[in-house]
Amino acid sequence: MKVEADEELAERARKLFAGPIEFLKSAPELQFLPEAAAPEIAFAGRSNVGKSSLLNALTNRKGLARTSNTPGRTQELNFFDVGEPLQIRLVDMPGYGFAEAPKDLVRRWRNLVNAYLRGRAALKRALVLIDSRHGLKDVDRDMMRMLDEAAVSYHLVLTKSDKVKPSALGPLYEGVAVEAAKHPAAHPAIFTTSSETGSGIAELRTAILEAALS
Ligand SMILES: Nc1nc2c(ncn2[C@@H]2O[C@H](COP(=O)(O)OP(=O)(O)OP(=O)(O)O)[C@@H](O)[C@H]2O)c(=O)[nH]1
Ligand SMILES: [Mg+2]
Predict the structure, then answer these.
(1) 72 lines ligand 1 (CB under 6 A)
(2) Which ranges of 22-79 does DSSP label H, i.e. alpha helix?
(3) Measured in whole angstroms, how far is the alpha carbon of residue 56 from the centre of its chain?
(4) Which H/E stretch holds residue 204?
(5) Which residue among 19, 83, 162, 212 is buried most deeply as judged by most CB within 10 Å?
(6) What is the pLDDT of residue 71?
(7) What is the rounded CA–CA span in Å between residue 23 and residue 64?
């Protein structure tokens, strides 16, 4: 029964992400947030970790979220509507932790993200993306603490898995899992993905739908 239910959910997720998906709006400040109309899943992670690329891979659309080589490209909360009628909203959050970020930009980021995380009943889960080449950094631990404190449950997602040797992925995963276990809001399911090869993308789609339905 369990296996059948899982397969059914996976198929539902596949269909949902293959269907209509549209950019809704950008919110550079809290006052521009759209009214909550569906369960939201937020993408967090260091600048350049691959948030926008992951969004594009999940939705199979190359240019839905803007990607770039310039760290800190995404500076606002970007909302994407999935499904017609609307079923899930994906939220691309501004990246954190780039070296040359001016202090007032960092403060602005913290205020915006914290207010969103704490005040959004529709927010069902966050994804905290971790670059497979670098593993967990202190700025990621800060993000995890912010989510713990806001009581927003989150999955850790290892990105750019195509960039590291397959033999290095196991130890990386183990180390990240040990640390995640110490965080109250970290979900035990951790994903390993590549937006380049598509590895792990279908599994993450299913997890997103599952979280949205929870
Ligand atoms: N090889 C490989 N490259 C990737 C992958 N995901 C993203 N990249 C590259 O990494 C760079 C940054 O990707 P983005 O998706 O723009 O990163 P981001 O987290 O949205 O960055 P900010 O918006 O600046 O916070 C781009 O050059 C991408 O092409 C991946 O899975 N594999
Ligand atoms: Mg981005």
Answers:
(1) yes
(2) 51-59
(3) 12
(4) helix 201-213
(5) 212
(6) 60
(7) 7
Instruction: Please work out whether the CB of residue 195 comes within 6 Å of at least one atom of ligand 1.
Output: yes
Would you state the structure tokens that stand for residue 176, as one six-digit string? 């990240």
User: Looking at residue 205, what is its pLDDT?
Assistant: 98
Nearest residue by C-alpha to atom 32 in ligand 1: 160
pTM: 0.94
Region 190-214: mean pLDDT is 97
Ligand 2 centre and the CA of 46: distance in Å?
Answer: 9
Cβ(196) to ligand 1 under 6 A? yes
How confident is the model over 92-144, as pLDDT tens digits? 998 888 767 778 888 888 888 999 999 899 999 999 999 999 999 999 999 99
Phi and psi dihedrals of 44, rounded to 5? -120, 155
Atom of ligand 1 minimally distant from the CA of 70:
24
Between the alpha carbon of residue 31 and those of residues 5, 26, 28, 54, the distances in Å are 40, 11, 9, 27
Integer CA distances (angstroms), 85 to 19, 22, 102, 103, in order? 11, 12, 41, 41
- For ligand 2, the distance from its centroid to the CA atom of residue 119, given in whole angstroms, is 23
In 3D, which of 161, 165, 166, 151 has the Cα closest to residue 190? 161
Model pLDDT for residues 73-106, shown as the tens digit of each residue:
567 899 999 999 999 999 999 888 876 777 888 8
Which residues touch 204 (CB under 8 Å, ≥6 apart)? 54, 58, 127, 155, 157, 191, 193
Name which residue sits closest to atom 30 of ligand 1, judged by CA.
160
The protein residue with its alpha carbon nearest to ligand 1, atom 4, reads 160
